[in-house]
Amino acid sequence: MPPQEIENLINRISVLESLIKEHNHNGLSTPQINYSDLFTKGKIYIHHTIYGADAATAGNSGVFWIVPFSCSGTEIREVHQTAGSSADAALQIEKLTGTQALDAGVTLNTAIELDGTANTVVTATLTTTGVDLQLARGDRLACKDSGTLTSCANVTVVIEVTLI
Question: What's the domain range around 135?
Answer without folding.
Answer: 41-163
